[in-house]
From TrEMBL:
Keywords: Hydrolase, Magnesium, Metal-binding
Names of the cofactor(s): Mg(2+)
Family, similarity comment: Belongs to the inositol monophosphatase superfamily.
GO molecular function, a single term: metal ion binding
Stated name of the protein: 3'(2'),5'-bisphosphate nucleotidase
Keyword Metal-binding among record annotations: yes
Keyword presence, Hydrolase: yes
SUPFAM superfamilies (UniProt xref): Carbohydrate phosphatase (SSF56655)
């Protein structure tokens, strides 16, 4: 398969993300009660998050010219004696995906390739969310494998696979979007066997303005978002979906506004939660800023420390959203 965006990096990114998405699908179907660990921040992480990170890092290391990865997960938790069963399960899944018998040490090493030391704002590195929306994944709802390429602090490429995101014009398949800065974005349907089929970017003729937001009220203040939606004249009920599938939905015309309203003082968005999604929306002709209208600054390391929340739009007056935020919302103190 070659992509019309004609770019080795995007080709490798798509291959890596499909490998990971396929492993996620398999884990979701097979492991009925997914083994879940809890990270220090109390968020869940599963066998599939670790396997997906190992697979993407391994594929990039073997094939791509840029191999540094800033990923969400690390193998630290898996190394403990208590986690022998999870470690074995992750190794089994990675081995099955690659069709070779892998050692636990190799798999842990591939996961840890996602802890590259970077100089913020300088050089070129990938940022990876092996499963964005782990809570959606556990509910068997929406999740995404998200891989972005950052060059001197700017996102220049993004691939977003949403294995459970079915578009109206491609029933029974997931969705994959691939964007290159200045070259647009292509929407593909992603079949169970990993094959891709290109579609028009827009998946629907319905132009009713809709806003989308997190399913998790702890991740975005839904009451504030409702007040803002009302202010900007959106009357349709919110489209609540997990993960960067929200950015995919905007790019494909299923929603026009994405709001992520801070719920906690001091929380900073992570680069892997927005790199791929934001370039997909921008290359679809949309706008992505924080809720105060500032451009997202990916040059500061692992977090978007200069930004608060997210406001994204396609085919919508972006300034009116920011005006509504400033007149309606009360933000949590720093
Ligand atoms: N208090 C908070 N505010 C905003 N985002 C949060 C948050 N706590 C966790 N998240 C992020 O929300 C992401 C999921 O996004 P969404 O709510 O849009 O589905 C999580 O990604 P992971 O699932 O990769 O950990 C996590 O990084
Ligand atoms: Mg997480
Ligand atoms: Mg995430
Ligand atoms: Mg994640």
């Amino acid at each position: 398969m070659t992509t019309p965006l004609h770019d080795q990096a995007i080709q490798h990114a798509i291959e890596a993300v499909i490998l990971a998405a396929d492993a996620c699908r398999r884990v979701q179907q097979r492991r009925i009660t997914p083994q879940t660990l809890e990270k220090r921040d109390k968020s869940p992480v599963t066998v599939a998050d670790f396997a997906a990170q190992a697979l993407v890092c391994h594929h990039l290391a073997e094939n791509a010219s840029v191999t540094a990865v800033v990923g969400e997960e690390s193998a630290d938790a898996l190394r403990s004696e208590d986690e022998a069963a999870t470690r074995a399960a992750v190794t089994e899944e990675v081995s099955e995906s690659l069709g070779i018998e892998c050692s636990e040490e190799n798999v842990l090493g591939w996961i840890d390739r996602g802890s590259a030391a970077i100089e913020p704002g300088k050089g070129t590195y990938w940022t990876l969310d092996p499963i964005d929306g782990t809570k959606g994944f556990l509910r068997r709802e929406q999740y995404a494998v998200a891989l972005g390429l950052i060059e001197d602090g700017r996102v220049v490429l993004g691939v977003l696979a949403c294995p459970n995101l079915e578009m109206p014009d491609a029933p029974g398949t997931g969705t994959l979007l691939a964007a290159r800065r200045g070259q647009g974005v292509i929407r593909y349907s992603l079949a169970e066997d990993g094959s891709l089929d290109a579609h028009d970017l827009r998946a629907t003729d319905d132009t009713t303005p809709r806003f989308c937001e997190s399913v998790e009220s702890a991740h975005s203040d839904q009451d504030q978002a409702a007040a803002i939606a009302q202010r900007i004249g959106i009357t349709a009920p919110p489209y609540r979906i997990d993960s960067q599938a929200k950015y995919a939905s905007l790019a494909a015309g299923l929603a026009s506004v994405y709001l992520r309203m801070p719920t906690r003082p001091g929380y900073r968005e992570k680069i892997w939660d927005h790199a791929a999604g934001s370039i997909v929306v921008e290359e679809a002709g949309g706008t992505v800023t924080d809720i105060l209208g500032k451009p997202l600054d990916f040059s500061l390391g692992r977090e978007l420390t200069a930004n608060r929340g997210i406001a994204a739009s396609v085919d919508f007056d972006h300034a009116s959203i920011i005006n509504a935020v400033t007149s309606v919302a009360t933000l949590p103190s720093e």
